[in-house]
Amino acid sequence: MSGTFLGMPAFPGNAAAAVHDSQLRFNLRKATRTIRGKRAAVVGELPDWEELRAAGKAIKDHTLRNLDRHLLRLEEAVTRAGGRVHWAADAAEANRIVAELVEATGETEVVKVKSMATQEIGLNEALAERGITAYETDLAELIVQLGDDLPSHILVPAIHRNRSEIREIFREKMGQWGRAAPGDLTDDPRALAEAARLHLRERFLSSKVAISGANFMIAETGTLVVLESEGNGRMCLTLPETLISVVGIEKLLPRWQDLEVFLQLLPRSSTGERMNPYTSTWTGAAEGQEFHLVLLDNGRTDVLADEVGRQALRCIRCSACLNVCPVYERVGGHAYGSVYPGPIGAILTPQLHGMTRATPASHGRGISELDASLPYASSLCGACFEACPVAIDIPEVLVHLRAKAPHPRSERLAMRAAGWVFDRPVRLARTQRLGGRLRRFVPGRLPGPGAAWTDTRDVPDIPAESFRDWWDRTEGGTR
Amino acid sequence: MNSRERILARIRTAVAGAPEVALVPARPPAAATGREVELFAERVADYRAVVHVAEPGKEGAVIAEALARRGARRVVVPGGLPREWERAVRDHPGCEVVTDDPPLSAAELDAVDGVVTGCAAGIAETGTIVLDAGPGQGRRVLTLMPDYHLCLVRAGQIAAGVPQAVAALDPARPLTWISGPSATSDIELDRVEGVHGPRTLEVIVIR
Question: Coiled-coil intervals in this record (chain B) (predicted)?
């Protein structure tokens, strides 16, 4: 399946390259600091934030526990309201369904609202193979698409680009995709936003088919909900004759009233606003539109099967965990090699690829090097857990996945030996004494696979005498 | 087995034996404070929208002043707009009223100077206006294509917070929640007003 960037090496290699890019680090530091300050201010405004967070967690946990029942209710409600529901087990099936729906309209161009699910399944590439051009309309997605780049943040895929880089992309590339950028374009964000407005205006007016995701789906009413800022979402949801929404099965909420919790949690966690500029909700075929809902599994039921890992399915894609993560701030989103970067990506990507299916006996065989490295892309500081509006204990899942990740034979042998030593006090004491006697021969840098560890650390000094021996000899320091 | 059956079966296997999680009861709405109008006006203005508070019966004059300031010459008026509001637009010198009957195309709407509507609800805490495509609001596209949206909100429509508004709204209708003019934070996470939706939002709160 798709979902990781093709040919991406493992996280440590990506990270080592990224931290040497001073422009990238500057852009990320500036952007994440801005958003952290805004989020803190608007979260601090709500006296019942922790209560909201607990409610969000409980609603999502309830939904996941009863996902089959709520999906069937959703299907019935959407169908009753004139929409058509399609089920896609994996990326290939979802892409095929969408392509066939577009082909049935006779159109070869579609406009898109920013959607993580369609990025995850590589929809744009799959449509291109069948001669359909998908135009991204979110400003940051547009920057990524024009720049032939990869997204690096859940909310702001072009967070790694600063204003002057964006200006260059617009000047060079807009003309190839449609209306060119004005000749006198400056790097003022207002001017850049205006250029995007003009570039996309005619596209909106002429498009017959739109593709979106959704932030929430309401089981009892069949309502879909999209939160956005620019109005490109409203354009795509309102103007075209046919609307196709591709939504992960975990995006469900049982009741209409549950929306109040998430409409308070999401904007404050995401853009640091009391409310995002535009939220659209629609039920089935609204205002005479043809509406198709594609429900996407693509590994989600694998995640659901893991007792520890399933909490990742509570995620509402706010990106607060990225913005507070010290690792993300330094290496950026590309290092994570998938459309889901940052702490949530480090637990979601390997799980969507089936990592939790690994048994201790399989030693994680069949797991890609990138997936195996992602659970280590963290210092386990816990800032992500604190910021998460649905209280996903990301450090807990990271540690859980580290146990599932494949470990090299040398490491497994070393761990087995250590286990044998620590298993009996007498073995430990003997080993410590032996170590104390041989301590002159321990090198400062380890040979073989241990060298990677000592590249950035010293081997700790082995004391001449263990604490237990010292205690016995001195009776706890009294002699 | 088709994909629908396969997905449902996989879900049932995945959660078999997992403990049931109770659905939290809907949270009690916060009590009204009596300060909703002031808070609403303040919070709408925070988004860099233009806000006026008018005494009941005086809003027509405020509409006329707003249109004059804007220099709007062709203004869309949805069906079902209260007569005194429509009259204020109609009586405004040099202003042509455009109706949505028969329905206007998106391109026609793109060419008008602005739109005047009511709303279905307001939310004080977040400075949000909700439209439900009902009388006095019109189809969703009416408040999307024109670059200027003048929206009237009655004090009685303003809910204290999000929970009250959600409870009062009808999910069967297409809803548009509007919090300020269109904006983006996509360039260096700095907020800039004015992208694809109306770049100017002006709100008249009727006390």
Answer: none
